[in-house]
Structures are given as structure tokens and as C-alpha cells.
Protein: Signal transduction histidine kinase, LytS
Organism: Flavobacterium johnsoniae
Amino acid sequence: MYIFEKNYKNMHKGTLSKKAEILIHIVYWFLMAYFTFIKNPIRARLYVPDLFFITYLIVFILTFYFHYFAVMKFVFKSFQWKRFFAGVLVSYLFFTALRWLIEQVITHILFQRINYTNTAFLNYMFDNLQYSSMPIILSSLLWFVIYFIRLLEYNQIILEENKSTEIKFLKAQINPHFIFNTLNNIYSMVYFQSDKSLTAIEKLSQIMRFTTYESQKEKIKLSDEIDYIKAYIELEQLRHQETAFVDLKTETENEFEEIPPYILSPLIENALKHGKTSTENPITIDLKVKDKKLIFKVLNDIGTQKKDKLGGIGLENLKKRLEIYYPQKHQIKFTNQNNQFTAELEIDLK
């Protein structure tokens, strides 16, 4: 029963509202009245509630809500079986004492009538054991229904919060990884006194603006991701002092289509980091978006430099984010064949 303790103490305020809970209670009492009277209109016409039916109804409702608001709250704050049985006993004693007060004392004073002529203690307590069971059981059942509605909503909130936290963590992994690589590139250009180092710094500044502002958004325009990719490629071209070792083609029906930031760039970063760069066999990048389907393909010759394990930080990160953003709506495939590495990504944007 640990789940009851944990979730009762941490129940989120954003779950089932008080108004909704009151509405459930109204529906509950309507159904009770329906099955008691309305379902059998003949019985309802013939039956005239007497004094002790009314008093029992009063005791029933008071016990119902005493058990609902006081006892159940006490029991499941820190669930233990002894607390549960103690709570049931308290509700039973509450029902019995209240019924005695109303039907044996108050009605005698007001109407000179009492319900029980045999007021032997054991007889009275045993008889009310049966009558008290109904409000206690029904109150417990309604409390459990509302509790589990709140529990389901609370668990959904926790899942959303965990999802948001994981996305933020994955984004935090991306930025340092990219900055580390880019600063190394610029360091090399400055070290060799390249006249393009200032241009590289300007490009880095442009990319950092994207990293600072756009990457914090849940989704961005596809055109912004493409601009980021182009700036990244230009930095690499400045470092290699070549301009034709990347062949980028884009064909999109709607440049305002929205995607999560950094959902395409890890495949390009991987190709530029581990691929063999040359103008004769350039890295080819092909992006198509048609009929709400994104198809992205990156192909590169495998370089001789030391490579990370397939996927590395960037691609493993990408896989996790795709699972979060597009569960069962994406496919990602890596192929290593004929000394060429191919990364293919398909996303259903519907």
C-alpha cells in the first residue's frame, strides 16, 4: 500500500478540482435517489417516509461525510491496516452514537417517540453494525473513485513533467557538445592566423543567438533549423578552407512547418565530425517535406579519423528526443556499407 502513502502526500493541485468533485457527489446522490424511488414510481407513491426513516437518512448522510472527509483522509495519509480498521470502528461508533442521540433523545423530546424499545447495550450495538455498514462502505467506494481519478491525472502530470525535464536535459547535452567542437575549430583558425577567423566568430555569434533563444522553445520553424544547419556548415567550410565538400538540398512545401530544435542537425554534425570531407565526394544532405512527412538523408564517406561508437552522444541523444516528440511516428536508420555511412530519418508531422 506504499503507493497510497506516496501519492496521497504528493497529490498535485492541478488534478480534479473541487467543483468537479462536488459534481460527482451530486450525480452520486441523484443515482441513489433514482434507484431508491424514481426507478419504482409505484413504490415511491405508496411509500410515505416516516419519522425514523428521515432520522436514519440524516444519520446516514452525516456518517457518510464524516467517514469521507475525516476518516478516509486520516487512514490514507499514512496507510496501515490498523489505521484502516481503527477508522472503520470510529465511523461505526459515530453512526451508533449519533443515531442514539437523534432517535432516542431528540425525537423523544420533540415527538415523544423513540425508535428502540429494547435499549440493551449489546443488542443496540449489534443491530447498528448492519445499518452503519451501508454509509461506511458507500462512502469508502466514492472516496476511492475520486482518489483514483486524481491519481490517474496526477500520474499524467508527473509523466509530462518528467518528459519536459528529460527534454531540457537532452538539450543541455547538445549545446556544450556543439560549442566545444566549434570553439576548437575557431581556435585552429586563430592559431594558424587564418584571415577567416573573424568571419567564423561572426558565424558563431549568429549560431549562439539561435542556441540561446530558439533552442529554448518547444518547437521552431523548419526554416530556422535549416538556417542553423547552413551556418554550422559554413563554419566547417571556413575551418577546412573549402566551400564544396557539402552538398545541401532542401525541398519543402511549407517552410513554416514546425519541428523541435536540433532534431536534424545531429545527423549533420555526425557526418562532418566522422566523415571524409572532399570536393570529389561531398557529404550529401537531402531534406524533403511533403504531405506532412519529413524525409531527411545524410550520406558521407567514412573517414580515417578515430570514430565514436555508432551513434555517439549526439545520435543517442537524438533517438531519445525522437521517442519523446514522435512516439511511433518516426523511423531512423543507419547504414554502413561500401565505406559509406548513411543516416535516414522519416517523421510523420501530422
About this structure: The longest helix spans residues 121-191. The beta strands are 220-221, 246-252, 258-259, 275-276, 283-290, 293-302, 330-337, 340-348. Residues 173 and 317 are 8 Å apart (CA to CA).
